[in-house]
Amino acid sequence: MSAVLPATAPGHRDSRPAPRLPLTRLTLQALSLLACLLLWQLACAYRLNLGFISFANTPRPAEVLQAAWQLAQSPKLWPHLSSSLLRVGAGFGLAAVLGVTLGLLIGRLRPVRLSLLPPLEVLRPVPAVAWIPLSILMFPSSEGSMIFITFIGALFPILLNTIHGVEGVDPRLIASARGLGTQDWRLFTEVIAPGAAPSIVTGLSIGMGTCWFCLVTAEMIAGQYGIGYYTWESYTVQAYPNIVVGMLVIGALGMGSSALITWLGARLMPWQGAQR
């Protein structure tokens, strides 16, 4: 004998979840990119002029695609990419080591905070462009000055996020660890550093993006090879599609490197996934 299911009472809300649209994350991302390309094409095709912005002389997507294909076949592509990657890698690596170390010390030790944080806070608002003349005077080679600019750009986001991460560690965790007999060094490495790790990873990701921004600025002035130099050179010779190609390459490299840092951080912090 089959059971009869009770009818839903009037006014009673069905607790079953509403059906979701069959749109994956990748599909939504692809659609957003296609929408941007379509708006770009329409603005250039109709020479859109809004008064404060004009697309009359902006290269179209097809022209940019052709310029990108020419760059991909050019023997200068690898020298440009390798030069920028090496400068970013060196500057970001130095900034990561120094920024995380200083951030942990400043966030945890009051004497270090009082002695080091004031001069760092004075230097923090200085833009990377303002450091370029001084870096040229300080370093005998242009490579050293460009690496220094990328280092300065990445240092302060990493430093400040590390400090905030240390300050945000739950005091109850520290008190519990001390109550269990954890000494200062083990407390630092097993409680404070893991607790501040999410903020450190965020600072590293932001610092990587800032690193690319500062590198482009440095290469425009002192470089001979590099994606930033390629973009600036394209402007000086009025190769406007190449400018957009350089911008897109910089954006892709910055997005990819920041995503790599976030992925590595998630792999190194399994306890974060367990909390979600």
TrEMBL record:
The keyword Ribonucleoprotein does not apply. It is a multi-pass membrane protein. One of its GO terms (biological process) is alkanesulfonate transmembrane transport. InterPro entries: MetI-like (IPR000515), MetI-like_sf (IPR035906). The keyword DNA-binding does not apply. The chain crosses the membrane at residues 85-109, 121-139, 145-163, 212-232, 244-266. It is found in: Cell membrane. Keywords: Cell membrane, Membrane, Transmembrane, Transmembrane helix, Transport. Coiled coil: none annotated. Pfam families: BPD_transp_1 (PF00528). Gene3D superfamilies: MetI-like. Belongs to the binding-protein-dependent transport system permease family. This is ABC transporter permease. The lineage of its organism: Bacteria, Pseudomonadati, Pseudomonadota, Betaproteobacteria, Burkholderiales.
